[in-house]
Structure formats: C-alpha cells, structure tokens
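Fold this complex.
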Amino acid sequence: MTKEELIKNIQRKQSFLCVGLDTDIKKIPGHLLKEEDPIFAFNKAIIDATAPYCIAYKPNLAFYEAFGVKGIMAFEKTVRYLQQNYPDQFIIADAKRGDIGNTSAMYARTFFDEYNLDAVTVAPYMGEDSVKPFLTEGKEGTTHWVILLALTSNKGSHDFQLLRTRDTEGQGPDTEVMPLYERVLRKSQEWADDTRMMYVVGATQGKAFEAIRKIVPNHFLLVPGIGAQGGSLEEVCKYGMTKDCGLLVNSSRAIIYASAGEDFAEAAAREAKKVQLQMAKELEKIRN
Amino acid sequence: MTKEELIKNIQRKQSFLCVGLDTDIKKIPGHLLKEEDPIFAFNKAIIDATAPYCIAYKPNLAFYEAFGVKGIMAFEKTVRYLQQNYPDQFIIADAKRGDIGNTSAMYARTFFDEYNLDAVTVAPYMGEDSVKPFLTEGKEGTTHWVILLALTSNKGSHDFQLLRTRDTEGQGPDTEVMPLYERVLRKSQEWADDTRMMYVVGATQGKAFEAIRKIVPNHFLLVPGIGAQGGSLEEVCKYGMTKDCGLLVNSSRAIIYASAGEDFAEAAAREAKKVQLQMAKELEKIRN
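Structure:
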C-alpha cells in the first residue's frame, strides 16, 4: 500500500487505529477452544468486529510462533482472511527482525514475497545491510514498508536508546552529540524515504515526539503503548501528528481482550469505536 | 546444557565448532528435492556427517520461516533429530529476537519450553525487559542461555555498534565514553553472569576481541564470520580464547554447501574435520 492510499484510508475512515493481533490461546474466551483453529476463529471474529474502526492490523509473530506449526497456520489464515475480505487494511508483521544481509533477505522474502504483507518491524542494531533487504525484496509493482525501531514504549528503551552518542571517530563529519534513537532516525534516512520507511515510537515517550518530528517531519510513526501500556492518545497527537496525520496508533490487549466472555467481539468493537471517535476528534484539528 | 558440560564437550571432541544450519532449498543438491521433506533430509545428512567434528548446531530461523508451515515442520524435525540422536550437541536458535516483556516471554517459551533448545540469539536494542524473559523462562532444572548481539560480523555493525556513547545524563555514575557494543557488554552483565549469557562477536572484528576480553574475560562468545564471511580462526583464537576456550566458532555456508552434488554430506564432513583439526591445534595452546 502506498503512503497516499494509507492517508486516504485514514481520512475516509476517520481513524488511524492499528489493532494488534497478539492472540494468546491462554487469554481467548473458553468457548472458542472447541473450534478446530481457536486462534484463527478468535482473530476472524475480532477482525469482523473492529474493521470499520481501524485502518491496520498488526499480528505479533511471537504469539503465532509459540504454537509451532499450528500457530503459523493460524497466522497464514489470518493474513489471507484480511487480504481477501478487507483489502484496504494495512497489514504489519510485528517481527522485530534484523540479521546479516542474506538472512534478512530470507525474512523479507517470507513477509513480502510469500505473504505479501505491507510492512514488517525491523530492529536497527545490526545497521544498514541488515535493514536494506527489507527495502529491496517484494513483488514488483507493490509497495512494502520497513518500520524501524527508534524509541520503543518499554522501560528498557532507557538502557541503550537514550545513550548520548557521538559518531565513530573518523567515520563521518557529524560529531554532534545526540541520543542513539536520533542517530537511528538520521542514519536510516540515507536508506529510504518516507514512502518506504516508518519508525516505531512508543506512546509512553510523551514529549520526545517533538524532538522526533524535527528529524522526521513527514514520516509515519507506528505508535504502540496506548491502552495496556499506559500511553496517552491525546499527548501522542499533540506532539506527533502531522498535516497528513502521520500516525498509526496501535492498541492490542485493551481491544482484543476487552471481554473474556462470549461477547468478546462486541466488546472489542466497542473499545475500537471508542478510540476511533477520539481519533476523529484529533483529525478534526488538522482538517484544512 | 551447563557451562561445565559445554567445556567438557569441547575438550573431549577437541572442537569448538558450531555448524550453522542455514538451509536454503535453492542451494541444496537437486537429488534431495524429490524427498518428502528436502530441508530435513539435507539437515539429517549434514548432521550425521558433521557431528563428530562439532559441539553445537545453529539453525537460522529465517531459512525455516521462509517456507511457512513446511519450514517450521522441518525446523521441529531437525531439533528433535538432534536431541534424540546427539544429546551432547548444544542447540542454538539463531533468531535475533527482542521485544517488549510479554512478547519476549512468548518467544522464550517457544524456544525453551516448547523446543527445549539450549540458547537463543537476542538483539539488545530494546534493553533489559526485552532480554530478561529469555533468562527466566524455560523448564525447571535445565540451563538455557541468552546469546546477546554485541559486535556483529557484518558491515552494518559500524553504523551503530561502534558509536561512541556516554551514559544518559542522570541515569548513572558511569560517564566514561565507550562504543555502544561495550555498553551492551557492561550493562547486560547486570542481568546474568557467564553461566547464562554469551555474546555474539563477529570473526571479522579482529583485534576488538582484545578489548572485549577485558570486559567479559570468562564469557563464551559465539563467533560467526569465518568461512564465507572471511574472518580468520587463528586471529579469533589469538585475541579471543580463554583458558576454558570461551569460544563457539560458527561456520554455515562453507561447510553445508561445500559441495552441491550427491557427495554434499561427505564434503561437509571434510570441511568440518578440517576446521576441527585447526581447532585442536588452538586448544593445544591452552592445555595446562
């Protein structure tokens, strides 16, 4: 999906909500466990209920891999169901991959050639040749995105991402001191522009969005951390929204586990709609 | 597997070779393609041929995930085959995972509870709570390892891992300037000691091993990058070996694709034996 299509979907649906499909068999309602594929049955119901209120889905690979072959089958069925029934939904493989070139190329082929997903989350630690294959693989004529980790929503983001860095001696003219995550934002712009790359910035990072928007004024940001992790949508929009919106705000647990009963899908729809209505208000502010 | 057991295996087999199972269906000999599961057939033959010369295997998840459900089945069969027939081999899931706590916990359960592997490679970018679940999950009474990326073998390792860093203002007393990878080595020692944690250091990094051994004098290092990537075993041993060896040196492509013909397993054995003999010479130097 191109950036223009994504922006159109956001305007049309008055939503920039991404629903995270972190489907844990231990948390899904008991009555689904008698289904042949409980994970897919859960996802299908969640998707049908929430699709009117969101513009993206983000299956989290960890949750599918945890069930081995059955989990991967549920992942594949979920992706195919979305592509066949909701072709306007942007699908993100939340995988946090990143490895030496030939290995990253294998991952990229899996997510882009095999599953034809729109985007995959990538960890920056191994640098350019670990990220580039995700930019070059993929079917001709389709647009695939890298969503690079910049400043994540978790406590551990303080361990390395906020370290003050200087460029390596002799490696370049830029010797300005800046946090590691800013270095990631700057360096990675040499690899792709805002039509192929987004960044992960946690909703819990508050005012850091201001600094980030100075470096990446036009990029979409994938923002996890509202809901269960405690970030505020209002604050994210205040400091992070661009004239094109520029945000995909993810909520996983607060939506998909809104109820543990037989009404789980209705409850998920209710929560998703609540977020969508807040988002419509935020979008109102950038109209005209 | 405990550190003591690993050291005993190294001494007994006079080898610290890890064979990387980066099995690519496009590269395996043509006659195997008529097998029901060509990837597993290839791995089984490679394992039977190379097991006398190595003490560890490292399947690279990217290569299995690329074939969806069939790939995961081949991965599971490979792991089970190793565990049943070669219980003294140390098995590493080369996965480069790392995510927020509840997601890392899912990955950890997959690799440790589900597959009962010895170790998984983890990316440090997201910090402590992304790594810790890999240290706490796992079956009671078994020892599982985190192998954390420190200084990798690829060109992109220069982009961020070598950046000079200072501690975040006000985050701690340590304001010494050091490269990011050293920061990763130091910080992560607060999370686990050398009986549970190893580090990835690329064979192509040469003299950096000297600096690294000052920070982690007793940890095992997983060293990729000899063979196809061009690192030198002799140099790695000169600067990186400890009195207990302290090295797992990986070779993937140079061994498993030593021949593309029907003699692929014999050729792999020949290459593995060649490396093992070099390793025996290096081990000679630390005897007594």
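The first helix of chain A runs from residue 3 to 13.
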